[in-house]
Specification:
Elements lengths: L24 H7 L2 H25 L6 H25 L14 E8 L4 H12 L4 E8 L4 H10 L2 E3 L7 H9 L7 E6 L3 E2 L3 H5 L8 E10 L7 E3 L2 E2 L2 H14 L9 E4 H6 L10 H11 L3 E12 L5 H18 L14 H33 L9 H22 L5 H18 L23 H5 L3 H25 L11 H27 L9 E9 L2 E9 L2 E7 H4 L4 E9 L5 E9 L2 E5 L5 E10 L2 H27 L3 E9 L2 E9 L2 E6 L9 E7 L5 E13 L5 E9 L29 H5 L3
Parallel strand pairs: 1-2, 1-4, 2-3, 6-10
Antiparallel strand pairs: 4-9, 5-10, 6-9, 7-8, 11-12, 11-14, 12-13, 13-17, 14-15, 15-17, 16-17, 18-19, 18-21, 19-20, 20-23, 21-22, 22-23
Helix pairs in contact: 1-13, 2-3, 2-13, 3-8, 3-12, 3-13, 4-5, 4-19, 11-14, 12-14, 12-16, 12-17, 13-17, 14-17, 16-17
């Protein structure tokens, strides 16, 4: 979780955490030294195998089998899970964009009880997706406000008479109406990027590909599962594990942000309905039918992460129960015919992940048995044996840090395990029981008031931590009494055994207490995430600046005299469209907060709810915050990884003819004779590509240089109306392993272009 008081100072650029430096310095170092990570992993796998063999050979003599084998089994399960993780994360293959296909795509948004504030940006984003698309709003809540929303924005509104099979049934109900080649499924809170189809449709040139999954990003960085801005608990899965699983063919649909071939989906009978995790189950059906499921490692949607521990527990319990039910001993879906060994290996890893709470509780029980009763489950060979165990633990932990590549830390992994301990344990009966499962929608846009109400969601880890603390303190007191010549109460215990249980106990107690304290202190009163922005604005006609914004509220910085006595002010915020052009939004701000800026106090920050003058203004705000900001932020990040490519293309800048001499995903440079250009000015631009296609955008001028013969070279940051064309010129880099490996595709050299020849 993000520490209390953390402030996000800029728009989140949704890119894989595994390719950008994070607060975890050691893991970030391994991002750039993959060879070192793999060498360490090789050592760890070998060391773990030797350790387990040593445990069987050297530590079993004289130990009761009922004590020895359960502990060894728990360690072996941990080792098996570790080896599978190593296999999956061994190498993260690049996923560059393939040439996009011109296919008809149906975009389906499934909703049940989500607020309009959640669904509205999703529909706006879906309608902004480039390509031949039709957007369907499938409302299982049958609500008039959703019908009105769809009709106002231009989506197709769909309902059905009942809610059978929850989300799966909702999508299946609309399938007969769909006429496209592909289907893009979006959760109600998942706002798609405009270029999502440009990034993903190219894979479907292969008839064997049935589904392409992309990453999930989350816009509310103050959620309970965020570690820092842009890095959260699911970053490990989407930024490391799924790219690795792409090599093994074991990618599965994650419920949203995936493009599916409709003919393949219909061939397997539509969305599966046996379990509550329709995505995982449908993936297995497609793989068994001989189709490939792929992963595209770009963050092309932004959704909502659970705001509080109550929502988090609901979500994780549903995921665990649905996934484990697929492993039910009568179904055994992940192990049936038609799946490759590499796929089955990954699914074993999935099963072991949900069994980890049992392993953790087993270790805790053994700590109590050893500490309180002196029941030794191993024939301890002295301090050398403890050193061997400690070395294995240290190397395994370091290897996990290395292969996670800055996405998650060791302590963060333990913290996540504590959070899911109770939800996953509650789901375990799904392995043996066939009771009907209810689909519980994850609550969204909720406050988090912390306190003891939040702490109760970590009650089981707290109970375990308390038991470990009591045992540790009792054993420590007993040892001290003996050291001063007294008579101990507890059974005798060797120093080596005491050292082992102390290491385990202190780590668990520290992490659990930290988790409980954070849960108690969290205070999040807003129900909508405010986007940090920097936009020109006017307050009662006076120039100001908008610094955060969403469709129901805003904060602006203005001169004190403008808003010193006012309770309501007229505001105009200069939002932007995708091509960078201004789209002003006007409304009335009711001031609920006012604070001085700087030591002089001449300027103030005012904030509060906004009533926009019309739907158009509200829609412009939603489009800017949910679509334009993350899209442009992502392009700016990739721009730093994609050097500009020299070209020579006829162009216009402003109203003047020019020649475009280099391009990138977020920038361009032009030669022109126009002198009516100033730094920081925003100018419309248009390029004529080799095939006669025209591409437009906006250029924010960053430099103006005199070249020769009266020519000026104008460069700056470009906001393109779309970016698919950049692939043809080698100017797009979207893969972790292909940074800086662009291939110039221009037919003329940069020097020739600069000289005007």
């Amino acid at each position: 979780m993000i520490p209390r008081g953390t402030v996000v100072t800029g728009p989140y650029a949704p890119i894989p955490s595994s390719v950008t430096r994070t607060s975890l310095r050691l893991g970030s170092w391994f991002q750039r030294h993959d060879g070192a990570a793999r060498a360490l992993a090789t050592l760890a796998v070998a060391l773990g195998a030797v350790y387990l063999a040593w445990r069987v050979v050297a530590t079993a003599a004289g130990v009761a089998p009922g004590l020895f084998w359960p502990l060894l089994a728990a360690e072996a399960v941990g080792y098996a899970s570790f080896v599978i993780m190593v296999v999956e994360t061994w190498r993260l293959p690049p996923t560059p964009r393939l040439p996009a296909l011109d296919l008809a795509v149906d975009i389906v948004i499934a909703t049940y009880n989500e607020d309009v504030d959640i669904v509205e940006p999703t529909v706006i984003g879906a309608l902004a997706v480039r390509g031949r698309t039709t957007v369907y709003l499938c409302d299982d809540g049958r609500r008039p406000e959703m019908r009105a929303l769809a009709e106002r924005l231009g989506a197709v509104y769909v309902t059905r008479p009942d809610n059978a099979h929850a989300k799966a049934g909702n999508i299946n109900a609309v399938l007969p109406r769909l006429q496209g080649d592909l289907l893009l499924v979006l959760d109600a809170d998942h706002v798609a990027a405009p270029d999502i189809l440009e990034a993903m449709t190219g894979y479907f040139a292969d008839d064997r590909v049935a589904l392409v999954q992309s990453a999930h990003s989350f816009r509310n960085h103050n959620s309970v599962m965020h570690h820092e801005s842009g890095r959260h608990e699911q970053s490990l899965f989407f930024d490391v594990l799924l790219p690795g699983r792409n090599r093994l063919g074991s990618v599965f649909w994650c419920g949203s942000a995936a493009v599916i071939r409709l003919s393949a989906l219909r061939k397997v009978g539509g969305i599966a309905t046996v379990t509550s995790t329709e995505d995982f189950e449908t993936s297995l059906l497609l793989q068994k039918a001989g189709y490939s499921l792929l992963y595209h490692n770009e963050h092309l949607i932004q959704g909502l992460a659970p705001d509080n521990l109550a929502a988090y527990s609901v979500q994780r319990a549903r995921w665990a129960e649905g996934t484990l039910s697929a492993f039910h001993w009568r179904l055994r879906m992940p192990f049936g015919r038609g799946l490759r060994p590499s796929q089955k290996l990954s699914y074993v890893g999935t099963l072991l992940h949900y069994l980890t709470p049992l392993q953790r509780l087993t270790f805790a029980v053994y700590v109590v048995l050893v500490g309180a009763l002196g029941a030794i489950p191993v024939a301890m060979p002295g301090i050398e044996g403890v050193a061997f165990w400690a070395l294995w633990m240290l190397v395994a932990g370091l290897t996990a840090t290395a292969l996670h590549r800055g996405v998650t830390g060791r302590v963060e992994g333990v913290r996540s395990l504590m959070l899911t301990l109770e939800p996953h344990l509650r789901a375990l009966p799904a392995l043996i029981s066939r009771r009907p499962m209810r689909f519980h929608v994850t609550p969204k846009n909720e406050p988090d008031l912390g306190g003891w109400e939040a702490v109760r969601f970590v009650r089981l880890p707290l109970v375990v931590a308390l038991a470990l603390l009591v045992v540790l303190v009792a054993r420590g007191v007993d040892t001290a009494v003996i050291a001063f010549g007294g008579q101990g109460v507890l059974p005798p215990l060797s120093l080596a055994a005491f050292a082992v249980i102390s290491v385990f106990s202190v780590l668990d107690i520290a992490v659990t207490l930290q988790l409980a304290v954070r849960a108690h202190r969290r205070r999040q009163h807003r129900t909508l995430w405010r986007f940090p922005v920097s936009l020109p604005a006017r307050v009662d006609g006076t120039v100001g600046q908008c610094v955060d914004l969403h469709q129901r509220g805003a904060a602006l910085v203005v001169e004190r005299s403008v808003a010193e006595l006012a309770t309501q002010v007229e505001i105009e915020v200069e939002c932007r469209a995708l091509d960078g052009s201004p789209t002003p939004a006007r409304g009335v701000l009711t001031i609920t907060s006012r604070s001085a800026i700087g030591p002089s106090g001449a300027r103030v920050r005012i904030g509060g709810p906004v009533t926009w003058h019309d739907d158009a203004s509200r829609d412009r705000v939603s489009a800017h915050c949910y679509v334009v900001e993350p899209y442009q932020a992502r392009n700016r990040v990739w721009m730093r990884r994609a050097p500009r490519v020299p070209v020579s293309l006829a162009a216009t800048i402003g109203a003047s003819d020019s020649t475009c001499v280099d391009v990138s995903i977020g920038g361009a440079a032009f030669l022109t004779r126009s002198t009516d250009v100033a730094l920081h000015q925003r100018l419309p631009i248009e390029l004529v590509l080799d095939r006669g296609e025209r591409v437009s955008g906006q250029l924010q001028v960053r430099n103006v240089t005199a070249v020769s013969d009266g020519l000026l070279r104008i460069g700056g940051v470009a906001d393109w109306s779309h970016t698919a064309w950049l692939t043809r010129y080698g100017a797009v880099v979207h893969a972790p392993e292909s940074r800086g490996r662009t291939r110039p595709a221009s037919r003329r050299s940069a020097s020739a272009a600069l000289s005007g020849r």
